[in-house]
Write a structure and sequence with these properties.
Region (Disordered) (chain A): 14-46, 349-410, 940-1008, 1056-1101
Keywords (chain A): Acetylation, Isopeptide bond, Membrane, Phosphoprotein, Proteasome, Repeat, Transmembrane, Transmembrane helix, Ubl conjugation
CATH class of the largest domain in chain B: Mainly Alpha
Radius of gyration of chain A: 36 Å
Protein name (chain A): 26S proteasome non-ATPase regulatory subunit 1 homolog
InterPro entries (chain A): 26S_Psome_Rpn2, ARM-like, ARM-type_fold, Proteasome/cyclosome_rpt, PSMD1_RPN2_N, RPN2_C
Oligomer: heterodimer
Organism (chain A): Riccia sorocarpa
Number of strands of chain B: 3
Chain lengths: 1101, 267
């Protein structure tokens, strides 16, 4: 009361200021009830300026009884609401009641005014409701902020409701038709304005397939829009079911196009798991002309790249059988490898077989009869390699005849059958694996000196872990190259591996010979378990079975049966361990019931060592099938007492739900709520694998939650690590997300953060990732250093110092850690492994968790997941080799041979060169040249290095044969021939010497097949006047089919080194080694400084 | 436009005639017709179109609304009064530069102030007052309203009631009658707060009722929560003491536990 009474008095007493304000009466109005008036609504021109100061008159008019007056008021309010909404908002109830008045015929206008007022008040939900009520008066085409905001809101709301409706199980109430109308109006407008990408985006978000189809078909550039949609559907559509709908639609549209893009169609179909349609498409294509056949091959190669074995096999099996009526077809329709698939490796393989048979040397078949002749590689002395050379002369004799035969065959074979056979060859993996193997072998640039240094320092200190680590490192460095020189050179040293170390040493051969499908079994023969002869060490036998699995990983058709028998014939848990892992790898994702049952029997023996492998193997078998077997595994995990078995099973269950996304949520929930930390830990893997590469927000949220809240360090570590898998499609995100975690007080979390960055940013050399990992490499805790070093190596794979200066520093750091005798064993092991990863696969591979077309490579992701288990079980390190992908450009013609073909890499060669060799200073002056990248000198150098390793003669001698293969017509000018001998190789280097002074060229010419690292792809250009044109233009890497523009000209093929030359020795060993061969296992275990493992015991809790 | 204007003017003449004769029903009929006609004039607020007849239109409209205000007073319709006043207001403020000041302006404004006082809308009263130029305060109509408000605020209710005799304009009488009721309400409100109960005699005196019956009626109509028994008026029902707030113990415990777990989780 008092306060109120005071105010007028004050004004009375202080009358003066009021005088001052008096003249500007209209301004006073502004300072009164509404402040929005200032400077608005100026009608007329200057002379008589009338400013509307208030809307109260209009608001009062709303209360009038006469409808005409109300209408008048509303109309004017609608015009002035932008300025007077604060005033109108106080009277909003009047407008609302007008809208609700059924008898009032301008309700929509009232709704519009109300909507605008609510919009200004920030009440978008109310605003939207009234805007919907406004019907046609709400004009979506208007350019005002109000309309744009509301339309956005409208679409958001629609998306929200639609998504909710599609996700809830029970029938949800139908959507407000007015809302739908607005969204559709908006979509139509987008399309009318030609903004089709927007329309596609909205349609996808709204989950409106009909609109999506309309948008795509209406656009002028359908193909590009289809590609855009495909990309969106992979990256933004998180709901699996809807994504499949989109893909089905895309396939339909693609097929309706006049010239369908079969590559994309088949990619879509692969996602839909529709093997029969793919088979039909491919079949249709190879019935067409040459270009169609080329694209069929390209499709097959692209499908192969995604490494989805089960699907590939289904497609192959659904392709029609080639007619067996003509006798020559027998070869083609026989083994899936199809003898008529004229891969360059084929003749050599035949040669080797012929030779070894002639030599009565043991092949894979007859080893069992002549056990005395078995000579394990690990027991070889260097001179035993010599007999291998005798294979070479045989080649030139056989090859031409083979070629002639081939030519004769092809004329008789119907083109169709031939093509079908080729196609099957690709789908079964034979052709691409052979080509890859050749590439990795002939371009091998690994640096043995690095290994030598490691070996020397490790020898000094008699460190068991480091000894094994060196063997792992060697295997990784030579993964897929078939070069086992290092092992051969250091047999004595190698023989110090005992027990499980021997297991991994033997298994390492599998990594080195990965993909060596034809020879794999004979290579490993000396170590494989034999019936009746129990002399061999179970460790090397188990390792050999594991190695076979690695060689045949994901393409184990031929070896499955053998592995299965080996598993059945043994009761030794070490052999069972190896056999289970081998089977899991070879039959990856095939869901083979028979194998599953056998593996399960092993599991039920409840032996810790075998059970762990069995658990993993069951997962590998059932990868991505989401079969109900997972429940069975979970039940057993609860039953058993062995932690190792539980861990194996937990990982196995995670593998089963691979890629299932939401559909795996029930199981994930069940696992993450389990009392047993090991099962929760499996739950983290399940999350990682079910949502691999989706960057799904809910998965990330859950993982982050576990990373900070779980009580078990193992679970926390894994949760962080799992982030790397979920984010592997968006590597730039990962460092940001885990950056806080990398500073955690908990060392396990730090380790997880390092590995997460390593996994998702592998091969990217991203600067954020490096700056996050750098401090961790000198962490106070040894295992964090280990993880960080390995992760750093993964990130920096194939990076040159020209691209990122950290590489050099990192290499020096690794060297320092390895040499430092005070360094902890853990980090030393990390450094040695890191060295192996950094220089993996002769530096021609990188870790690729996603294929070039942006799909996840299942094998790679699975390999990486199992690899990350090496924390508990070192032999699992080898699984990382599954995620290695060759960084190659391999151009093929319609006969799937490599023609001579040049293209340009439009950047300084040093940016993507191999890292300089660390050879002794005298030798380096010539070697460290930037010109090293030219494939001629690269080849020469590779040879030179092998020569340095004492293998030169073997290669030199085998070269004439190769030259013959290459030049069927004219091959005399083949540079390869000149470069193949060691002497010429050095000559090249001498020539290259002066170039050092010359400024580095801005581009270089690459020859098919060439090393093209992923970052280099954007610099690749094809020559305009080239004879060959690639079928797919998108990405110049991987397998690329080339269209021949001058088919009448004779084809000039690239001659290639065949890995068999190096691989042969082990099969073609002479009888001279019989003495050593008799006791290979004992030779390995002779100076046994490893304590015997404890006696088996029963665990009684 | 000319024709419409003439038409409206004619209608307005009829209205004025009826107004003179106090034929209120005809007046309100005519008025609503007039108002509809006015919507057709673009020169009126808020459009302010520069038509050739703009001045006439504005003047006519202002005149119509001023009459409408007086009419609503006569018809004792406060809502209509407010409506019309709000509609006439732009003519006093926004169109200053276009048309001369109306004769009736201050009396209308004073009337409005009085209305606000009657309706006990003191804040708006002062807002309106602030908008007036200082010379307006000298005008008897405004001065009257201001003085009334002062007396009202000071609690000098007797002065308020006696001011009825000195109205500056005949139309003010209606509001002065209403003001008595406002004063009574105010007193009633204060009494509620000030006393637990009053004897009927005292209450009658304070609330200016002459009979018990009037008091009874007032109590049942305006303040049903009052209770009259034993010759006293009890107000205490109104003062239901706010129960002292309970401590939200469960919530606090939950929060504290939450903090504890969060602390555990700190990365």
């Amino acid at each position: 009361m008092v306060v109120r009474a005071l105010s007028p008095r004050v004004h009375h007493e202080v009358g003066v200021p009021r005088e001052k304000v008096a003249p500007a009466s209209s301004d006073r109005g502004a300072s009164g009830s509404n402040s929005a008036v200032a400077g608005l609504s100026q009608h007329g021109d200057g002379s008589t300026m009338t400013v509307v100061s208030t809307a109260s008159g209009l608001l009062a008019m709303l209360q009038e009884h006469h409808p005409a007056l109300k209408l008048h008021a509303l109309n004017n309010l609608n015009a002035f609401v932008d300025h007077f909404w604060p005033e109108v908002s106080t009277n909003i109830s009047a407008i609302e009641s007008l809208y609700e008045d059924e008898t009032f015929d301008q309700r929509q206008l009232a709704a519009l005014v109300a909507s605008k007022v609510f919009y200004y008040l920030g009440e978008l939900n109310d605003s939207l409701i009234y805007a919907l009520g406004a019907g046609p008066l709400f004009d979506v085409t208007e350019e005002s902020e109000y309309v744009q905001t509301l339309v956005a809101k409208c679409i958001d709301e629609y998306i929200h409701l639609n998504v909710k409706a599609s996700e809830s199980i029970e029938e949800s109430p139908p959507l407000d038709p007015r809302l739908v109308a607005i969204v559709e109006k908006m979509l139509d407008k987008c399309m009318a304005d030609g903004k089709f990408q927007q329309a596609v985006g909205i349609a996808l978000e709204c989950r409106r397939l009909d609109k999506l189809e309309e948008a795509i078909t209406k656009s002028e550039n359908i193909p590009s829009l289809l590609t855009y949609t495909l990309r969106l559907s992979q990256t933004f559509v998180t709901k699996r079911e809807f994504r499949q709908g989109v893909l089905r639609l895309l396939v339909r549209i693609y097929q309706s196009q006049p010239s369908p893009d079969y590559l994309s169609i088949c990619q879509c179909l692969m996602f839909l798991d529709d093997s029969s349609t793919v088979a039909a498409v491919l079949d249709g294509l190879i019935k067409g002309d040459k270009v169609d056949a080329l694209s069929a091959y390209q499709v097959a190669f692209d499908l192969f790249e995604n490494e989805y074995q089960l699907f590939l096999l289904q497609v192959r099996d659904r392709l029609p059988e080639a007619r067996v009526s003509t006798p020559v077809d027998v070869a083609a329709s026989g083994p899936p490898a199809a003898a008529s698939v004229a891969t360059p490796a084929q003749p050599v393989a035949v040669t080797a077989d012929a030779h070894s048979a002639g030599d009565s040397g043991p092949t894979s078949m007859d080893t069992s009869e002549e056990p005395s002749e078995r000579t394990p590689l690990l027991a070889h002395e260097p001179q035993h390699v010599e007999p291998a050379l005798s294979t070479s002369p045989a080649q030139p004799v056989l090859d031409p005849s083979r070629l002639a035969e081939d030519g004769a065959e092809s004329s008789e074979l119907s083109t169709y059958a031939q093509r079908l056979a080729r196609l099957k060859g690709i789908l079964s993996g034979e052709t691409p694996i052979n080509l890859t193997l050749q590439f990795l072998y002939s371009n091998n640039r690994s640096d043995l000196l690095i290994l030598k240094t490691i070996k020397q320092t490790v020898e000094l200190r008699n460190c068991r872990v480091c000894h094994s680590a060196t063997i792992y490192s060697n295997a990784l460095m030579h993964a897929g190259t078939t070069v086992d020189t290092f092992l051969r050179d250091n047999l004595d040293w190698l023989s110090r591996a005992t027990n499980w170390a021997k297991f991994s040493a033997t298994a390492g051969l599998g990594v080195i010979h990965r993909g060596h499908l034809q020879q794999g079994r004979s290579l490993m023969a000396p170590y494989l378990p034999q019936n009746g002869t129990g002399g061999a060490s179970p460790y090397s036998e188990g390792g050999a079975l594991y190695a076979l699995g690695l060689i045949h990983a994901n393409h184990g058709e031929g070896i499955k049966q053998f592995l299965l028998e080996s598993l059945r014939n043994t009761n030794n848990e070490v052999i069972q361990h190896g056999a289970c892992l081998g089977l899991g790898l070879a039959a990856l994702g095939t869901a083979d019931e028979e194998i599953y049952e056998d593996v399960k029997n092993v599991l039920y023996t409840d032996s810790a060592v075998a059970g762990e492998a069995a658990g993993i193997a069951m997962g590998l078998l059932m990868v991505g099938t989401a079969s109900e077997k997972a429940g069975e595994m979970l039940a057993y995990a609860h039953e058993t007492q062995h932690e190792k078995i539980i861990r194996g099973l937990a990982l196995g269950i995670a593998l089963v739900v691979y890629g299932q996304e939401e559909e795996a949520d029930t199981l994930i929930e069940q696992m993450t709520r389990d009392q047993d930390p090991i099962l929760r830990y499996g739950g983290m893997y399940a999350l990682a694998l079910a949502y691999r590469g989706t960057a799904n927000n809910s998965a990330i949220r859950r993982l982050l939650h576990f990373a900070v809240s779980d009580v078990s360090d193992d679970v926390r570590r894994t949760a962080v690590l799992a982030l790397g898998f979920v984010l592997c499609s968006e590597p730039e995100q990962t460092p940001r997300i885990v950056s806080l975690l990398s500073e955690s007080y908990n060392a396990h979390v730090r380790y997880g953060a390092a590995m997460a960055v390593g996994i998702s940013c592998a091969g990217t050399a991203s600067s954020e990732a490096i700056s996050l990992l750098e401090p961790l490499t000198s962490d106070a805790v040894d295992f964090v250093r280990q993880g960080a070093l390995i992760a750093m190596a993964m990130v920096l794979m194939q990076t040159t110092e020209a691209r990122d200066s950290h590489v050099g520093a990192f290499r020096r750091q690794l060297e320092k850690i390895i040499l430092d005798k005070h360094e902890d064993t853990m980090s030393k092991m990390g450094a040695i492994l890191a060295q192996g990863v950094l220089d993996a696969g002769g530096r021609n591979v990188t870790i690729m968790l996603q294929s070039r077309s942006g799909h996840d490579r299942m094998t790679a992701v699975v390999g990486m997941a199992v690899f990350s288990q090496f924390w508990y079980w070192y032999p699992l390190v080898y699984f990382i080799s599954l995620s290695f992908a060759p960084t190659a450009f391999i151009g093929l013609n319609d006969e799937l041979r490599m023609p001579r073909f040049d293209f340009i890499s439009d950047i300084r060669p040093s940016v993507f060169a191999y890292p300089p060799s660390i050879a002794p200073p005298t030798a380096t002056s010539a070697v460290k040249l930037p010109t090293a990248v030219l494939s001629t000198s690269a080849r020469a150098k590779a040879r030179q290095k092998k020569e340095a390793a004492g293998k030169g003669p073997a290669l030199g001698a085998s070269s004439p044969g190769r030259a013959d293969v290459g030049s069927s017509g004219e091959g005399t000018a083949d540079y390869n021939e000149s470069g193949s001998s060691g002497k010429d190789g050095t000559a090249m280097e001498v020539e290259a010497g002066p170039e050092k002074k010359v400024a580095e060229p801005n581009s270089e010419v690459l020859n098919n097949p060439a090393r093209v690292v992923p970052a280099q792809e954007k610099y690749i250009k094809f020559k305009e006047d080239s004879r060959y044109v690639p079928v797919k233009r998108s990405r110049p890497s991987g397998f690329v089919l080339l269209k021949d523009l001058e088919p009448t000209e004779p084809v000039e093929l690239v001659s290639t080194d065949s890995p068999v030359a190096a691989g042969a020795p082990s099969t073609a060993n002479g009888s001279a080694t019989a003495a050593t061969a008799n006791a290979p296992p004992s030779a390995l275990g002779s100076d046994d400084w490893d304590p015997q493992p404890p006696e088996p015991f029963e665990y009684v809790p | 436009m000319e024709a419409k204007l003439a038409d409206a003017t004619r209608l307005f003449q009829k209205f004025k005639a009826a107004f003179q004769q106090n034929d209120l029903e005809t007046c309100s009929n005519l008025l609503s017709q007039l108002k509809v006609k006015l919507t057709e004039f673009p020169a009126l607020p808020p459009l302010y179109k520069q038509t050739p007849t703009a001045i006439q239109e504005l003047l006519l409209a202002m005149d119509i609304f001023e009459h409408a205000i007086v009419l609503s007073v006569k018809m004792e319709d406060q809502d209509a009064f407010e409506r019309h006043f709000l509609q006439v207001k732009p003519f006093y403020t926004d169109t200053r530069g276009l048309i001369p000041q109306s004769q009736e302006e201050y009396s209308i404004l004073g009337l409005n102030l009085l209305r606000l006082l009657v309706q006990n809308r003191i804040a708006e009263f002062h807002t309106e007052l602030e908008l007036l130029p200082s010379e307006a305060h000298e005008h008897p109509c405004i001065k009257h309203a201001v003085e009334l408000e002062q007396s009202f605020m000071e609690g000098a209710y007797n002065r308020v009631l006696s001011a009825r005799q000195a109205v500056p304009h005949e139309t003010y009488v209606y509001f002065m009658d209403l003001l008595a009721k406002t004063v009574r309400d105010e007193i009633a409100g204060c009494s509620e707060k000030a006393y637990d109960f009053l004897t009927v005699a005292d209450a009658k005196k304070i609330l200016m009722f002459s009979t018990d019956r009037e008091l009874q009626e007032y109590a049942t109509e305006e303040h049903p929560d009052w209770e009259i028994r034993n010759g006293c008026v009890y107000f205490q029902k109104v003062k239901d003491s706010a129960t002292c707030k309970e401590i939200p113990s469960l919530q606090l415990i939950n929060q504290t536990l939450g903090y504890a777990t969060e602390l555990e989780r700190i990365v």
